[in-house]
Amino acid sequence: MTSILRFRGLVVVVAALAATCALVLAEAQTSGAKQVLPAKAPVLVRQLPEITDIRPKDPDGASIIQAGKPFSILGRNFPAEPAAISVVISRAFTPVRSRTASSLQEVAKLRPSAASAARLDVLAPASLPAGRGRYFVHIVTKTGAKSNAVAVLFDAGHELTIFGCVSDKNNNGFPGIKVTATDPAKPTPYEAWTDSSGRYALRVPAPFTGQVLVHRPDNCFDCTLITRNLVNQATDIADVNFVCKNTTLVVGRTVTRYNEIIKGVLLDGLPGGPVTNDYGDYQATVPCGWSGTVTPVKTGWAFSPPSFTYSSLTQMPPRQDYIGAALSYRISGVVRTSGGAAIAGVKLNGIYPRSTGESNVTDADGGYAVSVYYGWSGTATPVKEGYAFSPASRSYTYVVAAQPNQDYVGTATETTPGAPAAAGRAARARGGHKAIASPKTLQPTR
How far apart are CA 430 and CA 257, in angstroms? Predict the structure, then answer.
């Protein structure tokens, strides 16, 4: 019995010693672990930012971000400087199980508006695909460290379409005009461009409150209504139209060099074919960016400059005047006898000289030359005492070309200067001789 008790006591002692050794060994191992971990693990945690939550939440408790609205990322180890961190919104292109940033496809990269070690405030983009979708959010530090990726729902909301047209007052559409819708709550405007007929279709989130604007493509494009305000618009809206003009003016005057008004001048080449009024003025509306050559035209007139060319007008050009001169045509010829001898000093009544070098009186060679205005009508009559002329006169109707070879044949008449006196003298001479001879004939005979 005694030996049994002693054996049992030995077993208890041995067991106690074994337990003590195990406890000491465990403590030694625990102590060794505590000495190793603090040197590495905390350093790793401080280097990698960690997302723990994203606010707000939807009614089901899932994190949700909404187009154009702010959201917050909660976590730890974030850089406190907004410029030192990027918030990446991604979509999974493969099934995401580990939620690692490397398995995601980036669709937007944002900068937080505010940052601290435990929170980032971010504004969601306004231009992600419409409707609701499952996205992931992770952050990347300036040093390249990436956080874990957290799943969120993105809600772009319901969309509506704004339809309209940009045209002139005659309903001619302007193609290629930019139209935008601006929501004060969203930093990025929605935009569309008019088609070849001037129509546009602009898709925006619903409900929409903001402005629809037409953007001027140049400085001569003008609209009576350049903006349209919409308030809490929830459904598609049609006929958001803008009546515009994309034009500028071309003006000027036509006068002579003496500043005399020339009316009725056609400005050929300008849209609408304007004609100068009673004051010699003209004006024309041309499309913005218009190019063309303008030529002043009036029958019987020549102008300086003969034409003027405009190139890509985007504003009203300086006044363009034209100096006009009436066209004239020369009537000329020679006056001779039937034997071909020149008759000088013959005056052509009915036509008169208008410039130096011209005369309506024949010169020593029997020649004359006089200019008349385009369209002139009248009669020229040669006159010289003691002569008759063939033809006796020449008539002209609406002269529009030079009239050369307007010749006349002159024939001396009985009343040619000097002829009556010579005849009288001859008669008197003949009469004197008779008076002297007669007494001799009648003397009595002795």
Answer: 69
Cβ distance 382 to 348 under 8 Å? yes
Strand partners, 115: 120
- Cα-atom radius of gyration of the chain, to the nearest Å? 56
Please choose, from the candidates 362, 351, 378, the residue with its C-alpha nearest in 3D space to the C-alpha of residue 410: 362
Q: To the nearest 10°, report the CA torsion of 40, 42, 43, 47.
A: 140
Is the distance from CB of 186 to CB of 212 less than 8 angstroms?
Answer: no
Going along the chain from its start, the domains and CATH numbers come out as 51-155 (2.60.40.10), 158-240 (2.60.40.10), 248-326 (2.60.40.1120), 328-412 (2.60.40.10)
Q: What does the pLDDT look like over 281-332, one tens digit per residue?
A: 999 989 888 999 999 999 999 999 999 999 988 888 999 999 999 999 999 9
Whether pTM exceeds 0.85: no
SS3 30: helix
5 φ, ψ (degrees, to nearest 5): -65, -40
Rounded-to-5 percentages of helix, strand, coil across the chain: 15, 45, 40
